[in-house]
Amino acid sequence: MNDCTVMELQCLERARLDHLNRGEWIAQAERWHELARAQISWRHQKKPFQQAMHARPMATQPRQQS
Fold first, then answer.
1. Are 26 and 15 in contact (CB under 8 A)?
2. Residue 64 placed within a domain
3. Can you state the angle between helices 3-17 and 22-54, rounded to 10 degrees?
4. What is the rounded radius of gyration, in angstroms, for the C-alpha atoms of the chain?
5. pTM here?
6. Which of 4, 10, 23, 27 could form a disulfide with 36 if both were Cys (CB 3.0 to 4.6 A apart)?
């Protein structure tokens, strides 16, 4: 569980306990949820680039015949 998910759960717990400010806590939880999704999406976009960086140049080009 990442930090954003922990914060989301804490906000939801506060929303359950603090009836006067319930809407504010739910809004905060939604913000943390969206931030967590954005981080996950960014990590998935970054992976193919990192894998390409580790590929050897000769492995990605056709072999030249002399």
1. yes
2. no
3. 170
4. 22
5. 0.64
6. 4
